[in-house]
Give the backbone structure.
Amino acid sequence: MSTGTQFKDIFNREAILDLSRRAVAAAPGVDSRRFVREATHGLESLEMKDRVRLLARTLRAHLAPDYPRALEQLEVLAGSEQGPLTPLRGFRIWPLCHFVEDYGLDHLDASMRMMRLLTTRFTSEFAIRPFLLRYPEQTLAYLHDWTKDPDETVRRLVSEGTRPRLPWAQRLPAFQKDPTPVLALLEKLKADPALFVRRSVANNLNDIAKDHPERVVDVVRRWSRESPAPETQWLIRHASRTLVKQGNPGVLEVLGFTRKPRLELQAFKLASKAVQLGGALQLHVELRSKARSDQKLVIDYRIHHRKASGELSPKVFKWTTRQLAAGERLALQRVHKIQPITTRRYYPGQHRVELLVNGQALGSHEFTLSV
């Protein structure tokens, strides 16, 4: 994406003109000019997801009133390798997914078939969630069948669509309360040949760990014992990242980290205790092992960011993993940039940074941020 172009500009006038041409080809009665006029009304002021909603709403207004017939038109509009329209792929197919999400709840089977098709071009992980909420048993039956689908994007949908805390998406409170149905699906995917799928399984487990840490510890302990293959071990490490940050003793044991490391903190320093937004926090740490044998350490740091209310909000940042021999010393340097980002607003005042080793705080410093 070129400099100055925003993510939402994927859905610009050129994309809408293409969508209108496709709509005319799929449903010859569509008024192309009216379609474009409605699809671009207020477009510039809308962010990404609102643009997706606008395009889905425009499609619904112009395709057949009968939903199953509209799905047939939507499939033509999406294009194919064999048809006259080239296949739509990537983010440009998102409005079609949203069409199913918003208008397809009264047609479970037809909508599930369409979501399977669309996920091979982009993803139906957002669209499937209302169906899981209204028809949990029927939708889960589809997902169990899809764990055996030859297309890896469909298998990934099984995991990604059931993530209880999927970013940008509707929460699944029933699975947050009881993840048993989700875990049954993940069991079938844990050794999937596609890294794409295994990464989603790991992310799903990491979501579950935020509500049910001990359930996830039990799962990764069993998987580690049953499948020592490197692919499974990678999945387990990725799935355990929140629990590692929290210093969960069960998961530290599974991953081979020392549960209660014996260390002397010889130095924990900041280059400056005054930082300007756009600058950096510079950390210096010196540790010495007090153990008689090797210790496996995961070293992180936690910054407590000041909020508008004046309260502090903690966030853990990864640093490194090290194996420390008996009596060995370790010196580390870290530069943490504090720059404007879209996902956090910075406020001036006192902040705090903590050194974490295997999830336990060994030292902390306050610093002042100027904005």
In short: The first helix runs from residue 13 to 26. The chain has a mean pLDDT of 95. Residues 1-127 form one domain. Strands lie at 263-270, 274-276, 280-289, 295-306, 312-324, 329-337, 349-357, 360-370.
